[in-house]
Amino acid sequence: MPFVKANITEEKKMIQELIDSDPELKKHNDEWNKEYEFRKKLVLARKQSGLTQKEVSMITGLDQRAISRAEVDSEVSPNIKTIIKYIDALGFQLDIIPKQT
Fold it and tell me: Pick from 61, 59, 57: which is nearest to 71 by CA?
């Protein structure tokens, strides 16, 4: 299996080089990565709170599908009201902080 792993690593490197060489592609990739990380944090916060999607739905009054889409669907971005309700239900708050450089 080391052969397969080496090929995957090499493919990742080639893809990253393509992304880095195209400013427009890099911009879209960076945006996608930020959204992906945010959604991962939503799921982690929900799990840390010990709640299921259905329980968050009952607390917020949001449809369970809306909770699921907020966590995983990159084609549909939840609106700010949904995010605030979601985070509130988990006992978290949204903070805006400076980027780390």
Answer: 57
Look at residues 75, 93, 98 and name the one whose alpha carbon lies nearest to residue 83: 93
Phi, psi of 79 (to 5 degrees): -80, 170
Q: Which two tokens stand for residue 65?
A: 């599908």
Token digits for 57? 């739905």
Confidence of residue 7 (pLDDT cuts 50, 70, 90): confident
Tens digits of per-residue pLDDT, 18-54?
A: 989 999 999 999 998 999 999 999 999 999 999 999 9
Ordered domains of the chain (ranges, CATH): 2-90 (1.10.260)
CB-based contact 72:39 (threshold 8 Å): yes
- Write down the pTM of the prediction: 0.77
